[in-house]
# Entry
Amino acid sequence: MANSSSGMAVQDDCKLKFYELKAKRNYRFIIYKIEGQQVVVEKLGSPEESYDDFANSLPANECRYAVFDFDFTTNENCQKSKIFFIAWAPDTSMVRSKMLYASSKDRFKRELDGIQVELQATDPSEMSLDIIKGRAL
# Structure
């Protein structure tokens, strides 16, 4: 279904893979990109992959959307997990691309039911593991 404000469609596979991450924990992360006039799955990270594997999968000069399933231990020693939505828009990416990703983000995020934390990052320091941990607790 295309979004009237940005004209963006979301491939069914985007929602299906997100559901598999959320409910079945088949993936550690999913990276999405806008291709043509729709959002598509670019990369799936296996459950064994680390946060560094995820961060290194984001292109240095191009925008992306990403979902990361973060496992952590609370101060009370409870095992928990939170699903992060990350809007990756590096300073070095093209202005038009940044505008397209920004205008389509909320519409796309609404398609993914179960996002718990949202983060916007323009360089790797804005989404370091320490920041992720801090936002999860």
Q: What stands out?
A: DSSP finds four helices and six strands in the chain.
